[in-house]
Amino acid sequence: MAQKLNYLKQTPSQTAGPYVHIGLAPGAAGFDIYDTELGQDIAGPNAAGTRIRVEGLVIDGTGSPIKDVMLEVWQANAQGIYAHPENAGTVEDGFRGWGRVITDFDTGEWGFDTVKPGPVPGRGGTLQAPHLSLWIVARGINMGLNTRIYFEDEAEANATDPVLNTIEWERRRATLIATRSERDGLPVYRFDIQLQGQDETVFFDI
Amino acid sequence: MTKPPAEFYQWDRDRHPPGYTPNYKTSVARSAQYALISLENTVSEVTGPRFGHGDIDPMDRDLLHNYAADGQSAMGERIILHGRVLDENARPIPNTLVEIWQANAGGRYRHKKDGYLAPIDPNFGGCGRTLTDEDGYYYFRTVKPGAYPWRNRVNDWRPAHIHLSIFGTAFAQRLITQCYFEGDPLIARCPIVQSIPDPDAIDQLTAVLDMNATIPLDTIAYRFDIVLRGRRSTLFENRLEGN
C-alpha cells in the first residue's frame, strides 16, 4: 500500500432549484428582507468606458425559454482590470465587476447594464478579447454552467482570442458571440443561451 | 501582486452530479449534450467578487428573527447551522460570502411560485447571509426546514434541506449546493440527492448533529463543513489567501 493523499474532497454541487430567488433575489420571490440585494450594480456610476446593455434568453432542449434561471456575470473594467486583490492595478470607485440577474417569470428575458470590458491578459503572454464570464444556475441544472460572452464588433480581437481558438469546432465558436444592435443610442448585445441540442452554447470546464 | 495568480485544481467531476440525471426529470431538457470545453485558468477565472461587512447586516445570519415581527421569532425546531469553508488543501477561506435559503418548518417556501398547501410562517422569511471569519468559520440561526412534495414522480418528497451558495475567492470556485440532515430517510429516496453518483459525496452533504455546539435549553446544532477547490502552490511562495 502506498501512502494516502490527504487532500479534502470537494463539496458536491446540487441544483439551485426553482426557488433560488428566495435566497439570492428575495425581491423577485415576493418579499423585502435586505436593505440591499447584492449584484444589482455591476459597474457603478464612476466606471469609464462604453455603457452597454446585454440581454437574452436561456432556452432548453425543447426550444422553450426557461423562466427560473439565475445568471451571474464577472468582468474586467474598460482598462481590462478585475476588481480583485490579485489583479495589478485599480478599478474605479464603485466598480465591482460582478452582477446577478434573474430571468423574467413570464417571458424568460434577462438583461443587465454595465460597461464594455477591455481586453485582459491570457496565458503565455497572449491577450484575450473583451469578454464577460457567465455562470448559470437553475432548476434542472445540477451544477452551474460556465460560459463567456464575446462581442460581435470585436471581430479582430476575437479572431486571435486564445480561448475561442481552443474550440476545435469553428462553427461552435459563434455561439459565444453576442450580436450588436442599438436602442436609444446605446449598444445592446443579444446573447441567447441554448442549453442543449444542435446549436448548443459552448460551456467550459474552468 | 505582480506574481502570476495560482491555478485551481480541476473540478472533480466524478464527485459532482452529471448534467443528465433522468430520474430528476427537469434535468433531461436542461443538460448539455456536448462535452464541456476545458479552459485552463486565466485571470478571468482565478479572480472573483469580494464582499465586505458593508454589504450585509450582522442580523442577516439570524433567520429566527431577520423577518420576524418585534418580539416574535420563527416557528419550528430552533437550530444552529455552522461549520467552516475550507479548500482541498484544508486551508480556511476567510471573508467569503455564504448565502442560504430554505422552506419553513412545514416545508413551505416564501415564494410566489410555491403553491404547497402548508401555511406560510408570518415570522419567517427563509433567507440569510454571512461572511466567514478569519478561520473560515460561519454560522446561522434558523429553524429546521420541513420536507415538501414536488412534481417529479407522483409521490416524490424532498428531504429537509437548506440551499447554500458559496463564493470562495475566485469565479472558478463558485458553488451552489444543498445540505441535508443526518438520519433523514428521505435522503436515499430523493432523485436530486441521488444525482450524485458517489455515496461518500452524498454523506458530505449531510450535516451532522453537533451536541457540543448546542445551546442547552435553547437551540440544537448541526455541523456542515464546505470544501471548495484548492490551488496549486508554487514552492517558496507564501500566499495569504487561497494559495
From TrEMBL, chain A:
Xref: InterPro entries: Intradiol_dOase_C, Intradiol_dOase_core, Intradiol_RC_Dioxygenase, Protocat_dOase_a
Quote the Pfam families the UniProt record gives.
Dioxygenase_C
Q: Which GO terms describe its molecular function?
A: ferric iron binding; protocatechuate 3,4-dioxygenase activity
Q: Does the keyword Oxidoreductase apply?
A: yes
- NCBIfam families in UniProt: protocat_alph (TIGR02423)
Q: What is this protein called?
A: Protocatechuate 3,4-dioxygenase subunit alpha
Which family, according to the similarity comment? Belongs to the intradiol ring-cleavage dioxygenase family.
Record lineage: Bacteria, Pseudomonadati, Pseudomonadota, Alphaproteobacteria, Rhodobacterales
Keywords linked to the UniProt accession: Dioxygenase, Oxidoreductase
Q: Which domain of life is it from?
A: Bacteria
- Gene of origin? pcaG
Q: What is its EC number?
A: 1.13.11.3
| PROSITE patterns reported in the protein's UniProt record | INTRADIOL_DIOXYGENAS (PS00083)
Origin species, per record, is Aliishimia ponticola
- Where in this chain does the record put each Intradiol ring-cleavage dioxygenases domain? 54-82
Automatic annotation (TrEMBL), chain B:
An example Gene Ontology molecular-function term? protocatechuate 3,4-dioxygenase activity
InterPro entries from the entry?
Intradiol_dOase_C, Intradiol_dOase_core, Intradiol_RC_Dioxygenase, PCDO_beta_N, Protocat_dOase_b
Enzyme superclass (EC): oxidoreductase
Q: What does the entry give for GO biological process?
A: 3,4-dihydroxybenzoate catabolic process
E.C. code: 1.13.11.3
A Pfam family per the record: PCDO_beta_N
Q: Where is the Intradiol ring-cleavage dioxygenases domain positioned along the sequence?
A: 46-230
Cite the Protocatechuate 3,4-dioxygenase beta subunit N-terminal domain residue spans from the record.
9-42
Query: Sorted alphabetically, which keywords does the UniProt record give?
Result: Dioxygenase, Oxidoreductase
Q: Which PANTHER family match?
A: DIOXYGENASE, PUTATIVE (AFU_ORTHOLOGUE AFUA_2G02910)-RELATED, INTRADIOL RING-CLEAVAGE DIOXYGENASES DOMAIN-CONTAINING PROTEIN
Family, similarity comment: Belongs to the intradiol ring-cleavage dioxygenase family.
- Name of the protein in its database record: Protocatechuate 3,4-dioxygenase subunit beta
Origin species, per record, is: Aliishimia ponticola
